[in-house]
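Dig into my protein:

:::
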Amino acid sequence: MTDSLRYSDTVMDHYRNPRNVGEIAGSPAVAQVGDPATGDVLKISLKIVDGVVVQALFKSFGCTAAIASGSIATTLVAGKTIEEAGRLTNQEVVRALGGLPESKIQCSVLAQQAIQEALRRHRAALAMTPEVARCR
């Protein structure tokens, strides 16, 4: 893109018509990244069954690129194994969006970070034994 503030049609579509908006109640695979005081915030919720992301939802407080990145990231990880979802990079988010202005790449990084943190929390919840859970 030649104009640093110009967005692709895909970005604008995901901004105007975001996919998979919401939260998954009761899921341990939830992560919020970003800083609400200074910029964009992205929250990702995953429902994981038998090692597969069967549902991915997001909420975002932020700019066009943040909303579009959260939206497309949920479509990219849904149906993937947790290993596949964990390998999603911000560059893949940018490619799927048809590019982002250089000043907005951080929004794709938030999507990657939120997914990785949600997966980390899912793994941590699986690792807890009943005895450990009762002690907390």
